[in-house]
């Protein structure tokens, strides 16, 4: 059967570069942000699911990527195109600035509902965590908002007709979970190895259209999201104070003893 | 009724209470009278500890269903939060999602993985380290009820000045309610991993961690030797896990366990951002690496430039000599 899969992806500051906060929000330039690395896995998984279909089914299938974020977040969608997404939606509205988890999930849920209004969806895929804050809560909140079953942190995903089955390793246990489709499934970095985009996809990704939706398009009340709707407030955000300069011992036969002396000096043993 | 109770979700009450649960009780006490809740009936040992920590009100969440399903756990917890100001739970993956579901059910604000918890102008505040450990962020919850997951080692556990006499009551979630709360999800199977060499503390909550990376070249012997001399847990990089040198549960980092021990010792680990994100909030960081230019030295308190295969056993021997 043809599949219609929604993938929610986040644009995050590059963890390899310097970052900044201002007024309790992340400040980022387009050049130092990208698609959350862990969100390549759900896009790849969606592509693989479609590859498992016959040609006729595939022609009817769709991978819709959605991001909620400021103007530069469109880069995450372009990257998702390179990886094989077919349709992209950017939810962008000034009133979304300063959203906490709840606000983000509300806006995402409204966008997913709007996509589903055009035709039934089978699956909503997400990453296991956004590498900026490592919250790992948006997929669960999204499932709750949508009233869909939640299968999170999947290291394996199998679709069998109208059922999804995942295997996951969490908190020192291996679990197998099942739910009827449509379901919200977040996947971790063990589920697959995202491919390198080929030249054709990279070129095509530059010009593919991205649909932009505002809160008004989604029928979401601005008071429920952004700073206005946030249930938490950042008091202060500061770069971590520099550590005292590192004490370096070059081993010349007594490195282990020097290490223990340090521990003793610090009262750690 | 005003919200004033400080609720703690205990992780494991079937034996003696462990460090992280005692830490949560210690923090909770500073925010209001404590109610301890758990999905199992507390053992005699656990009750004794609760008494020492000044907890009189103990709730056994008696679920006729599968409390390992996020939706079910949240539905069971909601009724014990009606007079609560705050719910504190350990920073496990499952708890994050249970609290997310509770936030949805109750409209409460959510802070994930606070490394410290306190108050600011009468609001519950949490402090955390983000962006691979490079920024410190202080936040407050502005709703009447605050939901927080709290990292191990946030405080040192301290018994209460006045002990209490714990009374356990059961709060039930019946089969029909549990079924509805599962939202169509079925737990097909759940297998707890054997903690081999269980003499070592669990990684996520250990106060000392010795971690090994690719520089071990597959021999974790020296890492284990030093860990055992320190009573530490063993950690690893993803590369070491991917090589099959050590179990996946030992992976420290952004896609593994995030740790905040008092002491972290990394050996043969370069210090990639993905790894640092999981350990950079450790109090004291020590590294042993043969490369004087390795990035982990930039975030260290103490570094040994040398071969871990000789430095670690020497350190372990020196520690054993001290205590002998
Ligand atoms: C999406 C994603 C998520 C990831 N998540 C994680 C994660 O959660 N955790 C994680 O750890 N990694 C993670 N990684 C991988 C990470 O980027 C690094 O590749 C990894 O941490 C490097 O491991 P390492 O330090 O063991 O190996 P290397 O970087 O190869 O470093 C080995 C070090 O050992 C030193 N060495 C060699 N021989 C000796 C010796 N005899 N004595 C002393 N020192 C020696 C070398 O000088 C070197 O510095 C992730 C990557 C991706 C893409
Ligand atoms: N602003 C956003 N837009 C789209 N998807 C998001 C957004 N924030 C989080 N997600 C999704 O939720 C997952 C977990 O994010 P988090 O809960 O923030 O760690 C990510 O991997 C994304 O798939």
UniProtKB/TrEMBL annotation, chain A:
SMART domains: ETF. Its cofactor is FAD. Pfam families: ETF (PF01012). Coiled coil: none annotated. SUPFAM superfamilies: Adenine nucleotide alpha hydrolases-like (SSF52402). Gene3D superfamilies: HUPs (3.40.50.620). CDD domains: ETF_beta (cd01714). Keywords: Electron transport, Transport. The electron transfer flavoprotein serves as a specific electron acceptor for other dehydrogenases. It transfers the electrons to the main respiratory chain via ETF-ubiquinone oxidoreductase (ETF dehydrogenase). PANTHER family: ELECTRON TRANSFER FLAVOPROTEIN BETA-SUBUNIT (PTHR21294), ELECTRON TRANSFER FLAVOPROTEIN SUBUNIT BETA (PTHR21294:SF8). This is Electron transfer flavoprotein subunit beta. It comes from Flavimobilis rhizosphaerae.
TrEMBL record, chain B:
Pfam families: ETF, ETF_alpha. Gene3D superfamilies: HUPs, TPP-binding domain. The electron transfer flavoprotein serves as a specific electron acceptor for other dehydrogenases. It transfers the electrons to the main respiratory chain via ETF-ubiquinone oxidoreductase (ETF dehydrogenase). Its cofactor is FAD. It comes from the Bacteria. Residues 5-187 form the Electron transfer flavoprotein alpha/beta-subunit N-terminal domain. Belongs to the ETF alpha-subunit/FixB family. This is Electron transfer flavoprotein subunit alpha/FixB family protein. Heterodimer of an alpha and a beta subunit. InterPro entries: DHS-like_NAD/FAD-binding_dom, ETF_a/b_N, ETF_a/FixB, ETF_asu_C, Rossmann-like_a/b/a_fold.
